[in-house]
C-alpha cells in the first residue's frame, strides 16, 4: 500500500504546483477537474509504471495514445519526468521517449521536447534540469542538456546545450544570463521581451 501513499503525495504535489503556477486556478478541485495538462501528467505516470514492467510496454503505449486523444498532450511512456511537473493549457505538447525532465518544471502549450536523430536505441531527446520554464511553442530538440533554472522563450528553437541559470530566446536560440543573480522572472520579461509566454 505504500505505492498508494506515494501516488497520493504525487497528486497533491502536482495540484500544489498547478495552483502555484497558474494564476487562473481558483481551487485544487477546479484544477483537478479542468486541467488537461494535469490529466496528461497523471495518465503518463500510470503509463510509465506500466512501461517499466516486463511485458507492459504495449499496454503503456495504448494508454499514452488514449491520453493524447483525451488531452491533446503526447508524452511517451518511456520519458522520465520529475516531481511537481506542470503543463499550462497543455494542447500540442510533445515529449519524446528518451526525454528526461527534472523537478519543478513548467511547460506551456505547444512545447516539443523532440529528437533530431532517427537512430534506434540511443538517447535522442533533451535532458531538462530542475526549475526550468519553457514558453509556448518552443522546440527543444536533440540529445542536449538544459541546465537548472533556465528560461526558454516562446517559439524559441533550442538545438544546443543551455547552461544553468541562462535565458534562451529566438530561432536559433541565443543564450544570455540575467543581469544579476536571482533576477525575478517577471523582471526578466522586460530585459528580454522574447521570453513572454
Automatic annotation (TrEMBL):
The keyword Acyltransferase is annotated on this UniProt entry: yes
- Name the UniProt key words of this record, in alphabetical order: Acyltransferase, Amino-acid biosynthesis, Cysteine biosynthesis, Repeat, Transferase
Q: Quote the EC number.
A: 2.3.1.30
Do you know which InterPro entries this protein is assigned to? Hexapep, Hexapep_transf_CS, LbH_SAT, Ser_AcTrfase_N_sf, Ser_O-AcTrfase, Serine_acetyltransferase, Trimer_LpxA-like_sf
Q: Which domain of life is it from?
A: Bacteria
Q: Which reaction does it catalyse?
A: L-serine + acetyl-CoA = O-acetyl-L-serine + CoA
Q: In which pathway does it act?
A: Amino-acid biosynthesis; L-cysteine biosynthesis; L-cysteine from L-serine: step 1/2
Q: What's this protein's family per the entry?
A: Belongs to the transferase hexapeptide repeat family.
NCBIfam families the UniProt entry points to = cysE (TIGR01172), EPS_EpsC (NF041874)
Q: What is this protein called?
A: Serine acetyltransferase
What gene does this protein come from?
cysE
